[in-house]
Write a structure and sequence with these properties.
The chain is of the alpha/beta class. The protein is built from 14 helices and 15 strands. The structure holds nicotinamide-adenine-dinucleotide.
């Protein structure tokens, strides 16, 4: 796969990030015809062909949810770097107890529509009306570009990139995809979760006043490790154990903590001007732990002077907490589901009454919108949340204050120009099998 750095727009400013999308928002008023099924006499009867790119845990789940969302969705193509992942995913979809026998009949992936390797995504996308993009995030900007250029509706997982160069590409696609009236749902599922939509609506309605600070957490024990197997090339190993390599994953502050950072941006209707922080790896230091940190603390500053304190940790045996607290001049919101006033009185408590699964809601609304010629497009806030997380990593790795522009205009592209099985990955182990790890005060990140 050729991946070129085509991000010629150097030195993007904060206002450019907003301007590109504002122009498009105006453009929408002109009422361009959507790409989709709106022109059909009976739009709900049209078969929508679905392709899955990245057939891992999340991609498999998303494919099941897409099939569940709409009786006329047919899974017709699948692409994965590895054949065993593709075949395993297909078997899991076919044996899923989430799907009725009728829905399973909509799985119509012929052998010639199974694509293995780095270039398969193009062939799978070509066969579909709607695509699911669920590879590791380093590939996302390029896969999104292929989908948008070919007028496909998209469900794509977060994060949207692992570096500033990737975000610049996604930004270009925000405008382009809106001009084409493409529906693009990004897997930041809190936006589709009733508890959060109720809480944030109240915050936007002024129940906690002006937001002055926040605390967000993803502190947990960490995720899987896929150990090196005898006979693997370095590229095969890194592609299997992708979580621990920044060109593929972006570190856990990007891959996982993005959810919590996104909630604060969402509530604040803003994104940070700068970040500074600290982090390192104290416990997760083995050869199979690649180059990522096991903890980050970041202080984000917003244009109006508000601060967000963020922490994420992947260390077993410590306090576990995944939450967001947003503090305003009149009270605060906590993601456990409550809003309190300045006297600690509960002014709202969300009661989960079998709230629908947000992962399913993402697909229900995506396909409804495609059928009704509507437009859901989450790319802009997806890009902002991703860059917020990336600037946090730049801050902890460097120990410096990193501005939004620094992160956005970073010329250090993690994703290599080409990716193929015979290529050398961008980061390599030393003679003892250990990978270089960022050292604050020394490492140049942008
Ligand atoms: N929204 C959520 O709550 C949530 C939960 C889990 C994962 N995710 C996201 O989903 C994505 C995938 O995560 P996962 O847990 O399914 O990982 P996974 O390792 O289970 O699956 C990733 C799959 O992509 C394949 N792949 C890698 N590069 C590829 C390429 N260039 N072309 C085609 N296939 C390629 C891999 O072989 C693998 O099968 C990540 O971005 C992750 O952050 C989101």
């Amino acid at each position: 796969m050729k991946i070129k750095n085509e991000n010629s727009k150097e030195n993007l400013k904060r206002r450019d990030f907003v301007k590109g999308t504002a122009i498009v928002a105006g453009g929408l008023m002109t009422g361009m015809l959507p790409v989709g099924v709106g022109a059909y006499a009976n739009p709900s009867a049209k078969k929508l062909k679905l392709a899955l790119v990245g057939c891992g845990g999340r991609g498999t789940g998303a494919a099941v949810q897409a099939l569940k969302a709409d009786p006329n969705v047919e899974l017709v193509a699948m692409a994965d770097a590895f054949e065993d992942r593709l075949e395993g995913s297909l078997q899991n979809i076919l044996s899923s107890n989430e799907l009725s026998e009728d829905r399973k009949k909509n799985v119509k992936v012929k052998d010639k529509a199974k694509f293995v390797g780095f270039d398969g995504y193009k062939k799978a996308i070509a066969l579909a009306d709607v695509v699911i993009l669920a590879t590791p995030p380093g590939f996302r900007p390029y896969h999104l570009e292929e989908a948008v250029n070919n007028d496909k509706h998209v469900f794509c997982e977060k994060p949207l990139a692992t570096d500033g160069a990737g975000i610049r590409k996604v930004m270009e696609l925000v405008q382009k995809s809106k001009e084409k009236n493409l529906n693009i749902v990004v897997g930041l599922q809190r936006h589709y979760q009733k508890k959060y939509t109720e809480l944030i609506k109240r915050v936007h309605d002024g129940e906690i006043g002006d937001i002055v600070s926040g605390q967000v957490y993803w502190d947990g024990g960490g995720v899987w490790v896929r150990e090196r197997k005898p006979g693997q090339t370095e590229m095969q190993y890194q592609m299997r154990n992708w979580y621990y390599f920044n060109w593929l994953c972006g570190d856990h502050i990007v891959e996982q903590h993005i959810h919590n950072l996104d909630v604060f941006n969402w509530a604040k209707k803003a994104y940070p001007v700068s970040a500074q922080g600290m982090g390192g790896r104290q416990v997760r230091t083995g050869k199979d732990h690649g180059e990522i940190y096991d903890h980050h603390y970041v202080e984000y500053k917003y244009e109006d002077g508000a601060y967000l304190n963020s922490q994420c940790r992947h260390i077993k045996g410590c306090m576990n907490r995944v939450s967001e607290t947003i503090v305003g001049t009149k009270g605060s919101m906590d993601s456990s589901g409550v809003i309190i006033d300045r006297n600690n009185e509960v002014v709202y408590k969300h009661r989960d009454q079998n709230d629908p699964n947000p992962y399913q809601v993402e697909h229900d609304l995506l396909f409804k919108s495609i059928r009704e010629a509507g437009m859901i497009n989450n790319l802009e806030y997806g890009a902002q949340a991703t860059l917020t997380a990336i600037m946090g990593r730049y801050a902890t790795y460097s120990g410096q204050v990193i501005t939004w522009e620094d992160a956005l205009n970073s010329t250090k592209q993690l994703m290599p120009a080409t990716v193929g099985w015979d290529d050398t990955p961008p980061v390599l182990p030393d003679e003892n099998g250990f990978y270089p790890v960022a050292i604050p005060g020394k490492t140049k990140v942008i």
